[in-house]
Q: What sequence folds into this?
């Protein structure tokens, strides 16, 4: 294969995250030359996806069937639309992207990934279990397929393909190149301009310098924006905060590095692209402060099973369906309505051992490292090592042998006078009475029993129902939970070829967008709510579409 002129490539990809790597690899496999420009150093290649748990939403798979789960495209579409709540004119392309993505998730997605060497953990997770109604939000069945290798396992095949293209002289990755402008001539995007930044030895996710050492300009027939969302820019998160979720939190943790700042969104808009649904966003309520932070306000999300009792900052028990793992944004709305931005889990050692997982590749060394011996410990007694480390070292964890001692220590982590410990005591005692019977009126207890009908939950995810105050289940544990920023659900509006659309609805010639910057497709294919496992999948799907479409344009 002849080496390409990479000073005049067929396409430019702005951003070296998952969507950008997928787009670049598709371009190279189609015989097109591509240059990736990225402001961060090479250590951060792969972007946010590297840090992820590697969950992928798929429908009617062999893994589901092996676990006794019966799924279908029709059921998945009902769940998606019940969650998305599309209700705007701007949702025209979002609906089309949702339909196309569902077809892929129920069709070629698994085989496409398998062909690239991606494998899956056999137990399918049941994420975002819903808001309580069959026609409403949530997954009716488990669909969260955990990648063998977690986030690094998702990005590795595409890094390999891009590096192969670099070796073949068909691609280049230019790190420390920050795009400040999309070049527009005669209504067409023809390239990018920006600053060359000083070299940096910052590790993955760490802050790198912004020292400018020069300028650059690069031109190509196609430019693909894959720069991510806004989760690291709390000012921008608050500026876009929707009224329906209440007053923005005064304090938030960051689930993404600080360089996830949304700056390319405004640059794309200046070049003629249309931004939509900026008020749709996905933030978690189960954030805890990382005891070993990599970036400012670095938070980790607890992936909870359904058994922990959940209390707001005042000590009131959270109402249905605000149970752990059921309705992320409904719970966020309820918490903020209290006037505070934190809440509490109260649980037992027996629950934490069975039900606590931590989101992120670095918190799951067994799955990330494909270590079968370490993985086997998940079905033995004791909590996973990273969970125990947070219990021992995390600033938000309280452990005690008695309820009185636990409540006293919870008071120490609460603003003065707001936590009604008597109310918490009454709620725990009342809930524990419900355990004495195989029936009852406590919907959370019934949800626990219902979850254990699923083989995967019973095996590794949901503890047998027991009393919180059972000494044999102790010690008691409380966890202070914070709002954790994560994903933008809106963004640059695109058609099904990932072409950026302008205010008039027509494509902006030469300009494409994919991944979180494009709302994972169409400017927001999730609508208001996500079903989980759909963010990485949205980057894969939209990055693939952008790469193939740009290759056709260059051809």
A:
């Amino acid at each position: 294969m002849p080496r390409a002129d990479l000073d005049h490539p067929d396409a430019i990809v702005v951003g070296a995250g998952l969507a950008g790597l997928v787009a670049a690899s598709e371009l190279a496999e189609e015989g097109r030359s591509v240059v990736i420009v990225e402001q961060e150093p090479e250590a951060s290649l792969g972007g946010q996806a590297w840090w992820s748990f590697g969950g992928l939403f798929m429908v009617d798979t062999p893994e589901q069937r092996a676990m006794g789960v019966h799924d279908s495209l029709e059921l998945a579409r009902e769940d998606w639309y019940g969650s998305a709540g599309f209700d705007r004119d701007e949702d025209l392309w979002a609906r089309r992207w949702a339909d196309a993505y569902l077809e892929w998730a129920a069709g070629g997605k698994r085989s496409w990934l398998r062909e690239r060497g991606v494998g899956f953990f056999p137990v399918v997770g049941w994420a975002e279990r819903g808001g309580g109604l069959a026609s409403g939000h949530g997954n009716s069945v488990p669909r969260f397929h955990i990648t063998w290798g977690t986030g690094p396992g998702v990005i590795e095949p595409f890094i390999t393909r891009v590096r192969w293209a670099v070796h073949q002289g068909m691609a280049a990755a230019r790190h420390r190149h920050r795009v400040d402008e999309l070049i527009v001539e005669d209504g067409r995007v023809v390239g990018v301009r920006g600053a060359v930044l000083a070299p940096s030895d910052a590790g993955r996710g760490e802050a790198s310098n912004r020292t400018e050492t020069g300028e650059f300009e690069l031109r190509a027939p196609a430019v693909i924006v894959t720069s991510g969302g806004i989760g690291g820019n709390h000012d921008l998160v608050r500026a876009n905060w929707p009224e329906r979720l209440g007053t923005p939190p005064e304090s938030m943790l960051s689930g993404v590095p600080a360089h996830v700042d949304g700056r390319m969104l405004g640059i794309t808009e200046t070049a003629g692209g249309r931004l939509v649904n900026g008020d749709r966003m996905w933030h978690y309520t189960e954030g805890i402060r990382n005891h070993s932070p990599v970036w400012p306000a670095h938070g980790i999300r607890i992936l909870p099973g359904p058994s922990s009792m959940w209390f707001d900052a005042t000590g009131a028990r959270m109402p249905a369906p605000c149970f752990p793992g059921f309705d992320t944004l409904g719970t966020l709305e309820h918490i903020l309505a209290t006037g505070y931005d934190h809440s509490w889990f109260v649980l037992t050692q027996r629950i934490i051992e069975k039900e606590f997982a931590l989101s992120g590749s670095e918190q799951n060394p067994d799955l990330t490292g494909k270590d079968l011996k370490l993985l086997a410990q998940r079905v033995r007694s004791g909590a996973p090592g990273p969970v125990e480390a947070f219990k021992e070292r995390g600033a938000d964890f309280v452990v005690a042998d008695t309820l009185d001692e636990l409540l006293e220590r919870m008071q120490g982590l609460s603003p003065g006078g707001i936590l009604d410990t008597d109310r918490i005591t009454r709620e725990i005692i009342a809930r524990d009475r419900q355990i004495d019977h195989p029936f009852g009126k406590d919907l959370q207890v019934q949800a626990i029993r219902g979850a254990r009908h699923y083989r995967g939950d019973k095996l590794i995810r949901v503890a047998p129902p027991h009393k919180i105050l059972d000494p044999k289940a102790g010690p008691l544990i409380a966890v202070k939970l914070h709002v954790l920023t994560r994903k933008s659900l809106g963004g640059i509006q695109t058609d099904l070829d990932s072409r950026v659309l302008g205010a008039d609805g027509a494509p902006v010639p030469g300009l494409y967008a994919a991944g979180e910057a494009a709302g994972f497709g169409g400017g927001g294919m999730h609508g208001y709510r996500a079903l989980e496992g759909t963010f990485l999948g949205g980057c894969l799907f939209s990055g693939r579409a952008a790469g193939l479409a740009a290759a056709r344009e260059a051809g």
Notes: The first strand starts at residue 11 and ends at 14. The chain has a mean pLDDT of 96. DSSP finds 18 helices and 21 strands in the chain.
